[in-house]
Fold this sequence. Notes:
2 domains; alpha+beta; Enolase-like, domain 1; globular; Uridine Diphospho-n-acetylenolpyruvylglucosamine Reductase, domain 3
Amino acid sequence: xxxxxxxxxxxxxxxxxxxxxxxxxxxxxxxxxxxxxxxxxxxxxxxxxxxxxxxxxxxxxxxxxxxxxxxxxxxxxxxxxxxxxxxxxxxxxxxxxxxxxxxxxxxxxxxxxxxxxxxxxxxxxxxxxxxxxxxxxxxxxxxxxxxxxxxxxxxxxxxxxxxxxxxxxxxxxxxxxxxxxxxxxxxxxxxxxxxxxxxxxxxxxxxxxxxxxxxxxxxxxxxxxxxxxxxxxxxxxxxxxxxxxxxxxxxxxxxxxxxxxxxxxxxxxxxxxxxxxxxxxxxxxxxx
Length: 288
């Protein structure tokens, strides 16, 4: 790796001031699990990294008065996995963490970093989109709230400015909604997925309401599938409806080819895994 400056601010204001909106070689670093790999490979050569490890106020998990859950951006993924508060609010997050990479990565990687990195293979973006989550981002201009489904602008791209930081993730109250996340890895179990599918919906035991279907890894960005959601709306919960939604999802998803598989292969995965994820959502905690 080439030499670089490491800044370690203690406050959010200091951290934002150290970022340069016009210099792509100045970057914030949270857990660094992805960024360090890029640096070792020579893909990214920073002049300055602004570490967020010592910034106060970014590591809390706080229930909000309206039933939502606020998660600090620097919360390690392993802490989310172990949190009883997170499990009670959104069990699908806990289940997702158990299959996300490995414990060494989860001990270091953070929820904010996994979103800001913009990698479409990440597990958490589709789950948070399915749950209707938002991020709070801070910059010299102040704070703004961004739905997670609007955060990603392209392959490894987000709508965040270079001097803007995610400070927290807000997951709304889920009420009676059921959710699940499934993924297919084509090599080692902890490898990048060829497909990730997150679903969430309400059901009165017979009919499906307010469904969300999100795919990732097979597409350039985590993507909601409106056609699959429409196919589910008002339908009778069961295998026939799940297969119908899978067919709609496969017809709609704009899959891409990469090292995990061809676009045609991933389209078939979408067809199968959307149906499986919908069925899994009705199991306890969305277990697969």
